[in-house]
Amino acid sequence: MEKTIIKIAGLRKDYHIGEVTVHALRGINLSIDRGEFVAVMGMSGSGKSTMLNILGCLDVPTKGEYWLDGVDIRTLSKDQLARLRNQKLGFVFQAYNLLPRTTALENVELPLFYNSQVKSKERKERAIRALEAVGLADRMHHMPNQLSGGQQQRVAIARSLVNDPVMILADEPTGNLDTRTSFEIMELFQDLNERGRTIVYVTHEPDIARFATRNVVFRDGLIQRENMVTERLYARDVLKNLPVENIEEFETK
Amino acid sequence: MNFSNLIKIAVRALVRNRLRAVLTMLGIIIGVASVIAMLALGEGSKRSMRQEMSNMGTNMIMVMPNFMRRGGVSLGSSSSMALKMSDVEAIRNEAVNVAAVSPEVRASGQIIYGNQNAQSTIYGASEEYMEIRKLNIKTGRVFTSQEVKSMAKVCLVGQTVIENLFGEGVDPVGFNIRITNIPFLIIGTLEEKGESGMGQDQDDLIVAPYTTVQRRLAAIDYINGIYASATSEEKSPEAITEIEEILRRTHKLNDSDENDFRIMSQSELMSTMTSITDIMTYLLGAIAGISLLVGGIGIMNIMFVSVTERTREIGLRMSIGGRGKDILRQFLVESIILSILGGLLGIILGYLIAKGAGSLMDTPAYVQSKAVILAFIVCFIIGVFFGWYPARKAASLNPIDALRYE
Lengths: 253, 406
Description:
The structure holds two protein chains of two kinds. The longest helix of chain A has 16 residues, at 179-194. Helices cover 33% and strands 27% of the residues of chain A.
């Protein structure tokens, strides 16, 4: 197995809004190795979200190369991209994007519905295992509106895990959560990463970025700076030291 | 994505929005139910009318004098003296496609028995009349040709007359009644026929030899009409042509003259009646069809709203591997399920409405399997047709735009 999972060279993305052309990405070179834990940072409009969308094959670059797990993305059709997303990638969104009025279990099952090789029995087993992995085994039959924000995000993470992806992409996964819950989500990510999962996430909070192994900072459509995290935070320790009385409990249950 | 997954996803999406699904279906349910009910009632009344008509004899041919005109003034058909007994004889002797023929002379008068009296119509006829008009003897006998020749004062009475004069359940054979003061002997009674399709009492009649009615009651030397029966229903048109030719000759009409008589056949009358009910049925069906169309548009409307409302869901489905065609199929299947389920419920409801309305209006409703199958197919087409466009819209969304949609 190749060590590099993502290889990007000379990547550009232009948006045409009426007469005006917006250069969202202006020549990005980046490679990410298997098992890395990368935080993409930057201000609003710096191109970090565009980058993540392209990494997730939700969007195609205007120019430049993108190799994902040894596959040249430019050669794939729309349907092949969908298949790639289904089998190699997992997404976590800031707004969770769970289906309303649908149990946690059914939400987690969803990606497997689009994979005709997975039979219904296996689908259920894998969804249960994914929920167990994020510590929600007892919440399987709850609807999203019966879960707290943190729990909903865990369901979303379980959903991104269920197809056993090579990489998890998270767009501001802690953006809607309070501090403690954010750390709990990061703890989950660190656990997954320790077990070998490649994770790339976007954040604008420097604190949250310090849980990663590497930071990539975007500015005006270019990579401004790339560095290994020197004083890495471990969520488990941070949580232990967090004074309990100062924590605002938003969680309903 | 395989087919069972597709169905499961679509069903789950519908169950998530139960109320909306039911409300959407309501349009289809009402549309289909009204189409089914209208067609069933139309078909039912057509059938019962046809049944009645064939009770009256399907190969019956009637000849009536035409409206007589003098200086452009219509004098009405009954005043016409165009038909004579000689016409009947000519038809009897010459028409090969005519099985039986009888004159008809009508008179009305007061009928008296004891201290009871009633008004009725007396039909003067020959002995073949009974068979032509499908009048059956309940008790007693028909008059003979001998009695016709001798102007015998004998008669047959219908059930309404019996009820009026003697009371229900009495067999008056052998009784003497007076018709406009002339004594008649009742030799037979007629079986009950009930109301005609037009609401006429078919049992309020007295049948007597035409000679007797012509001379003793009406005092005329012409006849009011001719009843004939063709050898078979198929031969009916030929028999009509024959009768027309014979009558034109015996009436000495030139080629340029109009007929001074009218020929009507039962089959003709039947096709007129059924075409009227057909028109009614199609008219009602069309109105119901419009409500079905409106129901279909309702589905399209809801599917459109649903696509907009569920844009983020579509984006999510795409981001976790749903292809455009998976989304298209999901929305299409949702709309087909809605319309077919609505159609099934509509068929059941329509059946119940037809039965209920049928028993209220005393017309048997008849739900044709043809109509049910048609309704089902129409529903499927509505589902595909009205679901396609919104589904296409959903499928053509860009995953990124769909995810970001607020």
